[in-house]
Amino acid sequence: MITFTVNGQVREFSGDPTTPVLWYLRDELQLTGPKFGCGMAQCGACTIHLDGVAQRSCILPIAAIAGLKITTIEGLSDDGDHPVQKAWLEHKVPQCGFCQCGQMMQAASLLASNPTPSDDEIVQNMSGNICRCGTYPRIHKAIKSASKAMAGVEYYVPEEGETV
Amino acid sequence: MSQYFDLTRRRFLKSTAAVGALVVGTCFTGAAPRVMAGVLAQPDDSAKTANLFVALRPDGIVEITCHRSEMGQQIRTAIAQIVADEMEAAWDKVVVIQGKGDPRYGDQNTDGSRSIRYNMQRLREMGASVRYLMRQAAATRWGVSIDSCSAEQHTVSHSSGKSFTYAQLVNDALAITPPETDKIPLKNRSEWRYINTAMAHIDLKDLVTGKATFAADVLEPKALIAMVVRPPVVGGTVKNVDAKAAKAIDGVVDILEIPAPTGAPLFQPKGGVAIVAKNTWAAIKARRVLSVTWDDGKNGDYNSEEFKANLLATVAEPQASVRELGDAVNILAKANDKLVADYYAPHLTQAPMEPPCATAMYYKDRVDVWAATQNPQADMSTVAAIVGMKKEQINVHVTMLGGGFGRKSKPDFSAEAAYISMKTGQPIRVQWTREDDIQHSFYHAVSAQHIEASFDKNGAIEAYLHRTAFSPMASTFQENATKAMSVELRLGFTDNPINTPNMKLENGEAPGKARIGWMRSVSNIFHAFAIQSFIAEAAHKAGRDQKDYLLETIGPDRIIDVTKQHATYDNYGGDKALYPLDISRLRQVIEKVAKMSKWGRKLPKGRGLGIAAHRSFLTYVATVVEVEVSDTGDLKIIKSWASIDAGTVVNTDTVINQVQGGSIYGITAAISEGITFDKGRVQQSNFHDYRVPRMNDAPLEIDVEIIQSDAPPAGVGEPATPVYAPALCNAIFAACGKRIRQLPIGNQLTA
After folding, report:
1. ipTM
2. Range B304-348+442-736 classified under CATH 1.25.40.10
3. Do A74 and B431 make contact, defined as CB atoms within 8 angstroms?
4. Which residues lie across from B150 on neighbouring strands?
5. Shortest CB distance from B665 goes to which of A93, A126, A134?
6. Fewer CB under 10 Å: which end of chain B, C or N?
């Protein structure tokens, strides 16, 4: 028996411990926010948080999450009001939207560990998440917006000569 | 326009009796599909009006049916914007219902960038009809003339100041016989409040909270999961199956064969062996140990290197004429100073983020399907054929699509689900893996092109010869077809805008050794790549600025009718009076994007600007790309700019988003190694070896400007893609002097 929490609820699992977390979430719990895109950690559509850190759930065996906390997009906020989600709304990021739950989970994890990432840090951190609709420029802008919102203060960027 | 939807008096429905909703459009019976994506409000369960275009319910909620598939182009929002605007509906009272597959909607094939072009007028008329009925109902109640009543935001007001809400008028409106459509006034453009604005799309909140329902998110019916091991070669068949180990996997319910298709591929499944399991992981595990041997059939000899050599040999020789003006062949034969270039581009695959997926439930007398399909009527006919029913017996519910790009116009996956459900008697969800998607797609054609030109004393093109050869889509529909259909050639080849007295365009034959399909903007991709690269090469040869030379090459403002040059050309199905090939509009987007990008500015060493312009899907786009190429050949796209003239547009932010996304989609053609074959088998399998653009491949800024136009609406989803690879390669040349004639770029910059 493997015990862990999903979006704050304690769960127990006694099936095949090699089952990827993605299929447990989707098939067993009917949490369909995490998506199947590649099955080999190449695209990021399945991204969830494991103890607050972005992980690819499609290759994460359930045996590896004993005692840990899983968060999916469904648990990221009560009503889409996480700063990242608000920024995604503000910038109208999604086109088809299929990859965007994974993109937002990746972005939320980035901002939790690095609240004011540089442009390059955003690119480095987000390049594991594919969007075939090509919303990258908007994702990048939305992360900058969320960063500002989470910092809660305006800060001065000397080379731009203005507060942003 | 489909005659069925000509809005005449007899097609107004006065009432759906039990419901009492005012319904405009048409009506047919059948269960109402529930909204798949979540919308502004849940519709009343009693309102069984979901197959209709517009229904005004007694509670004032407006149900607008979207019969086109949503795959990121925000068509659900655009259709609602059009109807609600003409109807003067309050936006917070609008609910969008996703239409099922039904020929009575007219065309539902959501590709070719034509949803707005085909539907805007009739949607406006339907919205305007409701507004008219509301005004008439109020006028009758007050005993005043309709002209003294105005409708605004779900309310009709009289000049005296009294008013009724739309909800208060529904019952009265049911008793009114409306006039003919052409007697109902449409708004002037200046009166539009939703059309031509950047309003947020209706599914946005659902998409950012994970609530939108894509194909694999359909929870009812609770389906068994099927995965299919397909023949690796098109036309191959199962020789032998050893399912012992697979059957022993806990959770595996059944293993069965899907028959091999006969004749042309069409949208039929490829056949193979299906694994049916209680959950996805069991199916994946079983698949890993299922052993199948194959007869490869006649395509087992397909090898991309050989095929490339054959295509290049084909375009080196004279071929069938497609368009002819003057005497290009003889002039070129005698010319001393020619520019001659061969271009090559590999197969690509669409690779939508959501791999193909469909759920089906077979009953004695019908099949219910839930699918991520761009073309639900094709699901109806393809499913009907494989289960032996009539297409009217196939109910196709369209989910949200996680991208489509042409792949999901071909519903082989729905037919697989239906067949397996028929054989097992269970509801079945067929889940394609990424490997399935990469290896069993309908591929963007591989192509070779030869262009040569001679020049007059000013460096202008005096004679121009362009030959194209590619594996034709025709081969998907007609067995052994080797000739391209004219609709494949009109995609950027037949209709080039070059202004020269002598032109010859030719097409060589080639077989389709894989299933050939269409991918966002189709053969425009390789045709625009060749033409726009060649013009930049000619500019360099003449020592001229790329942009100036491009403008001179397309020549002065005029309308071109290529059918007067011995060409067959259907103009994307658009009336050539309404949608002429208008060089002034092409010039305008070029001049606009040059201004946006500050064309001609001095750049640091290693930087370059490239430009390309192209008309496709009746829309004009010009793009400038700025790149940096390091001394060691590393390529970085710094920024790009695009100007688009798509005629009348509905949602300006959607247009910008589509142009940005279409640009990045175009990067695929330049950087992806493409799809290659050996022994008939695709050599790529997932995103590690089929490269698609990631954030670090893309510019972080793509500035887009829409030319404001009163021209009729044209395409938006595709036209930004074809210009990107040539603009990028022209920028690379400007940055480092290396000319890319063969895609992908690969290691050509470091070699």
Report:
1. 0.94
2. no
3. no
4. B157
5. A134
6. C
